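User: Hi! I'm working on a homework problem where we have to compare a predicted structure to a textbook description. Could you give me the structure for the chain below?
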Amino acid sequence: MQTTLGVEHTSILPYVRIARVDHWFKNVFVLLGGLLASFYLPDTIGWRSLASLAAAVAATCFVASSNYVLNELLDGRTDALHPVKRNRPVPLGLLRPAIAYAEWIALALVGLSIALAANRYVVASALALWVMGIVYNVPPLRAKEWPYGDVLVEALNNVVRLALGWFAIVVTHVPPVSLLIAYWMAGAFFMATKRLAEYRHIGDAEVAGNYRRSFRYYTEDRLLVSLLFYALVSALFGGIFIIRYHLELILFAPMGLALLAYYLHLGLRPESPVQRPEYLYRERAFVYYAAGCAIVFVVLMFTSIPALYEWFNVEPAGVKPLWTFGPDLQ
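Assistant: Happy to help. Predicted structure tokens:
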């Protein structure tokens, strides 16, 4: 029986590794979609909608793992040129491609089957997430090789995750476009920060270009300028969403922008932890701050402060909050 580095090809562990179960935490953004939907139409909340939301989260996990398997299979040659990723199962030859491709299909089918327990909109969103994995990884499209396109296409997956949570709760309306664009651009900011950290870590433009074709175009300056652009566009459309739907979130804006700045600070560190977001939990201060931001965001989503609408001369959106501080203007 063939072995590589003493590990049998029939071992199940390499196949588990390429599914990246440790990345499932990213699917918490599905819950954000459910939260926003419950704010928009609170009457839809019930045990049935919560069960649909749980199904959407589980479906997203399996579909995302399917995409990770495809990513690892098609990136094996270039991962071998990366100082860290060369230790992944595919560059080390620890698995059989035929079995891994079967795993790719099987995980997608499991995810889509679970999505059926929610509704057809969740199924369509889960399928869109899977197709995005093909667009990102498979030639001739292979968007991960495009300068800026690699970031924008990957960040779009977070928007799809938000839609999965939203449609698990609400199927009669789509999420506000301003929110989707703001969320997309915030995701692009995080992804571009990761690219910047990777580029700085490799430290050699030629090696970086061989590892990822988009790095043949990128420079530190270009990545930093793109970061500024993504942050500004996210802030612009986030402001539109806040004014149109819930002005109280303006109190969260400084915290949210500081979170972006904090993340960039981490991205500029030597051996930056943002290269592998699954290990960001080790940055305790950042985790505590991010958790605080999440708590403040949720509380403000369900809070009304009528005085803000008078100060900014904005009409209330008409959504009844859980808590009201001051005379109700509605």
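For your comparison, note the following. Confidence is low (pLDDT under 50) at residues 1-8. The CA atoms of residues 201 and 271 lie 6 Å apart. Good luck with the assignment!
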